[in-house]
Amino acid sequence: MPPEAVIRVSDLVVGFGTQTVLNHVSLAVERGEIFGLVGGSGSGKSVLLRTVIGLIPAREGRIEVLGTDLVHADDSTRQAIQKRWGILFQQGALLSSLTVLQNVQFPMREHLQLSQRLLDEIAKAKLDMVGLGPTDWHKFPSELSGGMTKRVALARALALDPELVFLDEPTSGLDPISAGEFDELIRTLQRTLGLTVFMITHDLESLYTVCDRIGVLAQGKLVACGQISSMLQSDHPWVKAYFTGRRADVLQRRFAQTMS
Ligand SMILES: Nc1ncnc2c1ncn2[C@@H]1O[C@H](COP(=O)(O)OP(=O)(O)OP(=O)(O)O)[C@@H](O)[C@H]1O
């Protein structure tokens, strides 16, 4: 049986005014994989993610998520699908007036009717999953480090037990050790919870270590899509420069060792 696509984007065209940002982009993200989307600054990665989750309208094309055509879906169908995904926005986007625990409970309050005791229990369990404990429960976002903020945002993204999570540059702004730990956390959660992950990243290390497949956007098109090994063989100038440039050297050697 062919793998099941959790996200299927076909011939997508998105633009603003006279600018076409995505020009007939097609891609599929399979169930259970970690798909990394990469591309130069301004290449349309965030626009693609925002269009898939319904924040930006498509001019043409088809977007299917979890088997539902979202371009033509009515509000209630769309809301039912939205409950099945979680999103980690770039800066964490925590509500500054709410504590860590309350931030994680926020989506549950919106979508579920649970007692306060149950909300507390679930939120604490989600925070435990991302490595945060009782000393962090009652802190406000301003009292958190960058890494902790990302962890709280991830716990919130997991609040409704999603099948699919969207991560917008999950390791940006983290030092290399924290970024590595966060990558490991994503991988562990993806395996234990059976998640499908769609993530935008600039982080080469993440692309090498956690992504099962990678898609590359350039000039409004998906110019490469596949495993890291196919990125290393690509003739596209941007893909070549990105994956085989000097910065990529150490990772490439490490990758070659693991493959031999
Ligand atoms: N709401 C908007 N209105 C008008 N233009 C927009 C809007 N959002 C994005 N754009 C334009 O779309 C293009 C792609 O932007 P996008 O944010 O998707 O880039 P990106 O690949 O995510 O970049 P980065 O890696 O720097 O975050 C840019 O030219 C940007 O100016």
Sum this structure up briefly.
The chain has 260 residues and is of the alpha/beta class. The chain has 11 helices and 10 strands.
Structure in words:
The protein has 260 residues and is of the alpha/beta class. It has a domain at 1-40 and 57-72 and 186-260: Rossmann fold, CATH 3.40.50.300. Helices cover 41% and strands 25% of the residues. The protein has helices at residues 45-52, 75-82, 100-111, 116-129, 134-137, 146-157, 176-193, 204-209, 228-232, 237-244, 249-259, and strands at 5-16, 19-30, 34-39, 60-65, 68-69, 85-88, 164-168, 196-200, 213-218, 221-226. Strands 6-7-8-3-9-10 form a 6-stranded mixed sheet. Helix 3 (100-111) runs parallel beside helix 6 and helix 4 (116-129) crosses helix 6 (146-157). The radius of gyration is 19 Å and the shape is globular. The structure holds adenosine-5'-triphosphate. Adenosine-5'-triphosphate binds at residues 16, 21, 39, 41-47.
Topology:
Elements: E1 5-16, E2 19-30, E3 34-39, H1 45-52, E4 60-65, E5 68-69, H2 75-82, E6 85-88, H3 100-111, H4 116-129, H5 134-137, H6 146-157, E7 164-168, H7 176-193, E8 196-200, H8 204-209, E9 213-218, E10 221-226, H9 228-232, H10 237-244, H11 249-259
Parallel strand pairs: 3-8, 3-9, 6-7, 7-8
Antiparallel strand pairs: 1-2, 1-4, 4-5, 9-10
Keywords: ATP-binding, Nucleotide-binding, Transport
Protein name: ATP-binding cassette domain-containing protein
GO molecular function: ATP binding; ATP hydrolysis activity
